[in-house]
Amino acid sequence: MKIDILTLFPGMFVSPFTESIIKRAVEKGLVDINAINIREYAEDRHQQVDDYPYGGGAGMVLKPDVVIRALENTKSADAYTVYLSPQGKKLTQEIVRDLSRHSHLVLLCGHYEGIDDRILSLVDEEISIGDYILTGGELPAMVLIDAVARLLPGVLGDDASAGEESFTNQLLEYPQYTRPAIYRQKEVPAILLSGHHEKIRRWRLQQSLLKTLLKRPELLLERDFTAEEKKILAQMLFEREREDEKN
Ligand code: SAM
Predict the structure, then answer these.
(1) Is the C-beta atom of 62 inside 6 A of ligand 1?
(2) Which of 86, 93, 223, 241 could form a disulfide with 167 if both were Cys (CB 3.0 to 4.6 A apart)?
């Protein structure tokens, strides 16, 4: 996958992608990430990229001519263009998965008061990373790239590890443990040490359902349960009722 980022601050992208998993993905040629300075597309003497907002008000707005030139020069025939914007659709794992299927992403980062609205006609989607305002689209672009890149084939050591994670299936991931088996009198659940793969799988599914129910119950409203999940939920409710009766 090729990812081009249009930004006024390309230097911000150096460190996040020269460490750890994304660094290795870049080195292996699984993802090609380029930060392009929007200022290169300014044609006037002062390389002006922003201007005062029509109608008054605080701050500066990125100019349509400069940004559209940058976009038109960067987009390929199969490019999918995203403007990182607090007004966009909120980023979810489902959107991340959809984005990971494109071969070329062009990410536009706004700054100051944002971009001239006419630029939006060249954008396929506006994406927000949450209901708060950041100074620029650079950190949201980094978040999006990190989430997308780790889904690309070959990026994670074990491809299955992306398949079972939180939100993949509208469920939070089951609890994870590592050595030592007992730490400060707290024991790892015995089933995980049993080596019984089927029982472990079922326990993990049960824990996923429970965690989601306790922490993010709204996720469960949006999903269809399998027959096995319904059975596990019914069992959990039954056990809960028995506990209540005892107390
Ligand atoms: N005036 C804009 C508004 O009220 O909608 C906010 C502009 S913000 C200060 C500057 C830039 O940061 C935006 O153009 C956008 O690219 C980026 N940005 C800020 N918050 C964001 C968020 N939550 N998600 C994605 N991008 C964001």
Answers:
(1) no
(2) 93
